[in-house]
Amino acid sequence: PPLSPGAPLIGHLRALRKDPLHFLQAQVREYGDVVRLPMGPTDLVLVAHPDGVRHVLQDHARNYSKQSRGFRVLQELLGHGLLTSEGGHWLRQRRLAQPAFHRQRVAGFARTMVDAAADLAATLEARADTGAAFNVAEDFTRLTLRIASTTLFGADVSSAAHDIATAMSRLQVFVYKRLTQPVPLSLRLPLPAHRQFERDVGSLNRVVHGIIAKRRRESGEHHDLLQMMMEAHDDDTGERMSDTQLRDEVLTLLIAGHETTASALAWTLMLLSQHPGVRRDMESELARELGGRNPTYEDLPQLELTHRVVDESLRLYPPAWALSRIATEEDLVGGFRIPKGAHLLIAPWVTHRHPSIWDNPEGFDPDRFLPEREQARPRFAWFPFGGGPRQCIGNQFALMELVLVLATLLQRVRLNLTPGQVIHPTPAITLRPRPGVWVTASRP
Ligand code: HEM
Q1: ipTM of the complex model
Q2: What architecture does CATH give domain 13-442?
């Protein structure tokens, strides 16, 4: 692939660290669909075109491993859960968890999602009466934690939301710094940052162990994901999952299941406040289809514009903004030779703004997702949930949650960005709005 020359020794490492979103976009504008970026000891190959993405994530997925630096750094936090394992172990765990995410199972979560959203709506209505400004991103973290923990593990951990969010904010920054360091230091070195890392992992572990201990006390009456994982036996050895393995899976699902959807909700509310015309159309759709009552699973097909708003928000602000892979065999991507061992970067942020795929890529236009316009685009022009065998297991769960929460909230409150606010998309593990999304609430 064409080489984008960087600084001596460190290549583009500094630019990638400082402002990866704009840096990567600029590389695509200058060099096209596949570009080689020197990054100190290794090169990074950015694959931007949807056909290349499809090749790597789906069609030739078996030529690519997830064992990049980022993966190892993430393993320091999540261990060997679904997101950060590979091979036979990953496949066993995926098969074990999959039934909990079948459409029918997920449909059964609709009620819990709506009840939780309705409680938040009541809180926001009360704030509408006071006129006070607040960071709605925090409310969404609490909401999505409650939804993920009650549906998957039968335990509401939202009262620990503040501790979890504080630990996660620090961990995201720490993990992201480590994976953009030329050589990450051993965590055994007694540095203050490493001690803080241990304390933060410790507070997440306490939440997870609390969930598991609660279940051990009440076993028998549950049929959820946690129960399935606790009862599963290995086909060959007949053994149960070890405590460590259980901890890794629960923590992975808790983090992957709430951070991303909380961030998607915050971005969506920001966009709706910036585009009052779209918000009015959405309010009309909700009034027409629901007439003021809370949505149910059966209402989902009618909420077409709400779905399109969610899709467009995930295009502009994909919470999982970049994925990485390593080539385990030599390969050809977009006509370019990819050597064995090459590090690949695949970034929804970049592909979702690809100038030859999307008209006015920076513009917010939910109607891009009208079926006829969608059919005109390649499959991987939009892939906020990844694709192929490692596609997000919570894909349906997340889309349903986003639509139900929005449909519940928007009928009862309008959120307006406080004036003069500049919100920066900040890439860590997920793409977060910094310094949050500060709003006031009013009644529609
Ligand atoms: C994997 C995005 C919500 C659990 C992934 C991947 C992406 C993604 C892009 C693939 C990573 C890769 O290929 O390297 C998102 C987004 C979400 C979301 C944007 C919300 C808007 C959820 C939810 C759950 C979840 C709600 C669980 C309830 C997982 C798990 C994996 C995963 C366990 C690893 C799957 C595997 O490798 O087998 N997610 N996700 N995610 N996601 Fe999600």
Answers
A1: 0.99
A2: Orthogonal Bundle (1.10)
